[in-house]
Amino acid sequence: MDGVLVDSERFWHAFEDEWVFAEATLGTPTRAEITGRNYREIYDYLTETYGTTVSKEEFVRRYDEYAMDVVYGDGVVLMDGATELFDALRERVRVGIVSSAPQPWITVVRDRFGLDPLDLVLSAEDIDGPGKPEPDVYEHAAAELGVAPGECVVVEDSYNGVLAASRAGAYTVAYRTPQNEDVDHSAADEVAEGPEELRATLARLVGLE
After folding, report:
1. Which fold has domain 82-205?
2. Fewer CB within 10 A of the terminal residue: the chain, N end or C end?
3. Which residues contact 61 (CB under 8 A, 6 or more apart)?
4. What residues does each domain of the chain span?
5. What are phi and psi of 118, to 5 degrees?
6. Chain Cα centroid distance, residue 100
7. CA 139 to CA 121: how far, in whole Å?
8. According to the model, what pLDDT value does residue 137 have?
C-alpha cells in the first residue's frame, strides 16, 4: 500500500526526519532500514540497534495520530491509474493488499479511494510471525489465497518489502519512484519505473496485453 498505491512515503519521510530519527541516541538510521517495516517493529529495531528516548506506547501513539491526522485522511493521493488497473486485474487474477500498516490505516485508504472488492487484505499485524523483511507475511498471504508463493506477483517499493516478497518465492516487481530512487532493489525480479511502466508490467505478467 504505502509507496505503491498511495504516495505516503513523502509524509513518512518528513515524520522520520522531524521526530523518529531524533529519538535515536546511538547514530542515525537510514530510511532503507525502517521503510516497509511495521511501526511496532520499527520501534523494536531502533531500540535494539540505536537506542530510543521514548516508550513504545508513546512511539505507537504518535505514529497512529500522524497516520490518521496527516497521512491517510486527506494527505495522500492514489497512484495514477490504480482504479482502472484494479478493475482490469480482477478480470484475470485475484487482487489483494499485503501491508505492514495496521488494518485501520488500510481501511481508510480502501474506503477513501474505493479499492474494494479485494480478495485479500492482510496486515503484518494479523500474522503470528515477523514482518518484512522476513517472508512470513507473503507466505501467509499465498496460503490464504490457496496458491504457492511462486504463483503470485508482488509489487513492493521498499528494500524490506522487496526482500520479504523475494524470500517468499513470489515474482517480485520493485516499484521505483522519486522517493526511493537510491534504494537497492537488486533482490527483485524486475523494476518498474513509475506508474505507467508498472501498469504495463502487470498487464504483461497477467496476460492483459
Report:
1. Rossmann fold (3.40.50)
2. C
3. none
4. 9-71, 82-205
5. -125, 145
6. 6
7. 14
8. 98
- Measure the CA–CA gap between 174 and 50, rounded to whole angstroms: 28
Contacts 24+ apart (CB under 8 A), 147-156: 153/93, 153/202, 153/205, 153/206, 154/98, 155/4, 155/192, 155/198, 155/202, 156/4, 156/36, 156/188
Query: Cell 522476513, residue?
Result: 134
Q: Find where cell 474505493 sits.
A: 114
Q: Rounded to an integer, what distance in angstroms lies between the CA atom of residue 172 and that of residue 185?
A: 10
Q: Tell the residue number behind the cell numbers 535515536, with chain if given.
A: 24
CB atoms under 10 Å from CB of 72, counted, come to 24
Q: How far apart are CA 88 and CA 1, in angstroms?
A: 18
Q: Supply the pLDDT for residue 22.
A: 80
CA-to-CA separations, 47 to 53, 108, 133, 159, 204, in angstroms, rounded: 9, 29, 18, 20, 43
Peptide bond into 195 cis (omega under 30): no
* pTM for this prediction: 0.92
